[in-house]
Specification:
mainly alpha; 10 helices; single chain; 80% helix; 255 residues
Length: 255
């Protein structure tokens, strides 16, 4: 097994807890796990270790939210996501660790800014005579393809597709449990697709699996805590947390 010091194990443990919570309660928070794992392991190798834990979290999320899924959104995203994964594989094989982090951070900040401006502008534009703002219009099919491509690309190169897809599903104005159920199925399939690519790049090996095996119980524990939180969180607080967590993760990747 790769030798890790106490601080590295603490960082990995915290990252595993974040994975479980992000899968069942706080989408977008997974980017914090990306940062924590990259601090404990080489950035490229950390993507493989994190991928296995994400799959564990995906399994619990799929089971918990199996009845609240928007299948139309998932069908729309299939092909652009696969294209993004393919492009991301090539980029991951050529780019340095620093380039990977900076590219993903810049993409996330750009999407966050676009989302905030869009929600603000369209709310004003569609405000009825009573002065109450209506919700912004949902993104169209072309926008969905763009989000799907970026989601596939970012999830392949840094396991950071969560915030990208969170921005899309937030724009689609999904209710909390539908949001979580749709995201659960989406990332379970996407993360499964990524496994052979990670193996082919030589990043997923037995040493990585041994490290991951120690962390799996923390993901499971956090997943059940996240389900408890999701049952009690309001729609407004949920959306604000998604935006804040995306911003924090993007800034951390850039720095």
């Amino acid at each position: 097994m790769v030798e890790l010091d106490a601080l590295s194990w603490v960082l990995l443990g915290l990252g595993a807890l974040v994975v479980g919570l992000s899968k069942t309660a706080l989408p977008g928070g997974g980017t914090l796990a990306v940062v924590l794992f990259a601090m404990a392991l080489p950035a490229r190798e950390s993507t493989a270790a994190l991928l296995v834990l994400l799959l564990v979290g995906d399994l619990f999320a799929v089971w918990m939210y199996r009845r609240t899924v928007d299948w139309a959104i998932l069908r729309r995203l299939i092909w652009p996501v696969l294209l993004g994964v393919a492009v991301g594989t090539v980029f991951l094989g050529l780019a340095s660790d620093g380039a990977v982090r900076r590219v993903i951070g810049a993409i996330l900040l750009g999407l966050l800014l676009l989302t905030l401006l869009r929600r603000r502008g369209q709310s004003k534009a569609h405000a009825p005579a009573t002065g109450e703002a209506s919700g912004p219009a949902k993104p169209g099919r072309i926008a969905g393809y763009g989000y799907g491509w970026l989601g596939g690309f970012t999830t392949m190169v840094a396991n950071a597709g969560g915030p990208v897809m969170s921005m899309y599903m937030l724009a689609m104005r999904l209710e909390v449990k539908t949001f979580l159920g749709t995201a659960a199925y989406f990332f379970f399939v996407v993360n499964l697709v990524k496994v052979p690519f990670q193996v082919g790049l030589g990043l997923l090996d037995w040493d990585t699996l041994r490290i991951v095996g120690v962390l799996v119980p923390l993901v499971v524990l956090a997943a059940f805590i996240g389900r408890w939180v999701a049952e009690r969180i309001s729609q407004t607080l949920f959306e604000r947390l998604v935006l804040v967590l995306t911003a924090i993760g993007a800034v951390n990747l850039l720095l």
